[in-house]
User: Fold this.
Amino acid sequence: MEQKIKQDGIDIGGNIRRIRLEKGIGQTELIGMLDLKEIGMTLEALVKIERGIQHITGTQLRGIRDCLETTYDELLK
Assistant:
């Protein structure tokens, strides 16, 4: 069983998934949006981040924030 990674009770991956779904953006579409911003992320990495089993880098977090047109507050709550 894979271990979930949480920072001080914050489920960043779950927040990314929730916001992405609220905006009607698919995982593949988000990867494409990140690619246009020259932020390398594979679909597999996004799936693992959303499931909370892979860490996210600051660059990836900033890119996702921009692509989802959200705030750090929303991603880190």
About this structure: The chain has one domain: 12-72. The first helix runs from residue 12 to 22. The chain has a mean pLDDT of 92.
